[in-house]
Amino acid sequence: MKIFLDTADLEELRTAARWGVLDGVTTNPTLFAKAAGGSYESVLAEICTLTPGPVSAEVVAENADGMVAQGRAFSKIAPNIVVKIPMSEQGLEAIARLRAEGIRTNCTLVFSTNQGLLAAKAGAVLVSPFVGRLDDISEDGMTVVRQLVEVFVTHEIRAEVLAASMRHPLHATQAALAGAHIVTLPFKVLQQMVHHPLTDSGIVQFRADWEKAQRARGAA
Ligand code: E4P
Fold first, then answer.
1. Is the CB of 28 within 6 Å of ligand 1?
2. Domain with 194 in it: what CATH number?
């Protein structure tokens, strides 16, 4: 399973890249609004230098013509840009038109297996079910991930399931077990995945024992 970071924060992305675990990036208007820096295009250009993997850039136009125009512009920023298009009637048309031009898309705001199936049929290479937002309304978001993986395998659909709206490390484990091709994580969740209280206390204990042994040998 590939790990993407769900952020437009360059420092977070640089850190994950140094850890050797950054396979790609997803951004959206909300994440861009939180990040420091210049225009969306300039932030995307910088992000694309930090990973050769897919970097999702989300359109905000409401009709297919506008989405296609924004998608074309984003795709010129770098070869690894993937245009993020919301699930809708206009969005499906934009996905199909961009696909015809050879521009890769990520269909976002997917909340049902049928929506994901349609996105893949229209030509999206990435399909993003939002797990956390479904959990928030008392539905089991991971069910959509599990079903989409099964549908894509059964029907030999090449699109990848990108488990999005991840809120905690258990989501990452469950997405991996469900067979998601990709999980996109807030940096905080990635950090939480690194740590375990027994690992952290074990490191402290080994260090203390090492220093004790050094002192004992020095005294001998
Ligand atoms: C990813 O592509 C999505 O934009 C993101 O995971 C949404 O997460 P949220 O539901 O926490 O805003």
1. yes
2. 3.20.20.70
